[in-house]
Amino acid sequence: MKLIVGLGNPGKDYEKTRHNVGFMVVDNYLNKRNEHNFKTKFSGVYTDMIISGEKVIFLKPQKYMNLSGEVIKSFLDFYKINIKDLFIINDDLDMPCGKMRLREKGSSGGHNGLKNIELNLGTNEYKRLKIGVGNNKNISTKDYVLGCFDNTESPLIDEAIRKAEFIIDDFLKYDFVDLMNKYN
């Protein structure tokens, strides 16, 4: 069983913000498969599918970003999912808008959602797809990540979201080192 988690903040006010790229990726992936049957559990909305004979849970934590790890930990524990089968999709301020990077482990890089995941899981050794949202040092970090993409950024993010669909498919088929070699 795999757990694929898109990070974001719940609510209409945050839907199209930079911090919600993880939600956008999960929504796009599921929309392309006409999967709209979300259920609620442990402060998360989720759906599960059988893909290539394996159960895959797609989760969007509904606590705010800085509490995402609590929701993820509850799902891992309840479904007895090994941390090696966890895949996190998150925004990254330190990469140009639309650039993507797969990592097997690593620091939070100051990302509050990743900090909380590390705190709750007791490790930073979990797989992740980081999607660059750029950065503007003239705007506070909070205001920047809670802001929407502008007209020059939107096509870059749309392309990253489309590409992430293939990365998810390949995550379900390949060894993660091979996946990193293919996409990084």
**Topology order in helix (H) and strand (E) letters:** EHEEEHEEHEHHH
What's the alpha carbon Rg, rounded to whole Å? 15 Å
**Poorly predicted runs:** none
Main beta sheet, described?
A: 7 strands, mixed
**Lateral arrangement of strands in the main beta sheet:** 2-3-4-1-5-7-6
Q: Can you tell me about this structure?
A:
The chain is of the alpha/beta class and 184 residues long. Helix content is 35%, strand content 22%. It is built from six helices and seven strands; from the N terminus they run E-H-E-E-E-H-E-E-H-E-H-H-H. A seven-stranded mixed sheet has the order 2-3-4-1-5-7-6, with helices on both faces. The longest helix has 18 residues, at 154-171. It is globular. The protein starts with a strand and ends with a helix. The model has no long low-confidence stretch (mean pLDDT 95).
Characteristic key phrases:
184 residues; seven-stranded mixed β-sheet; alpha/beta; single chain; 6 helices; globular
Short characterization:
By secondary structure, the protein is of the alpha/beta class. Helices cover 35% and strands 22% of the residues.
SSE arrangement:
Elements: E1 2-6, H1 21-32, E2 39-41, E3 44-51, E4 54-61, H2 68-79, E5 86-92, E6 100-103, H3 112-121, E7 127-132, H4 141-145, H5 154-171, H6 176-183
Parallel strand pairs: 1-4, 1-5, 5-7
Antiparallel strand pairs: 2-3, 3-4, 6-7
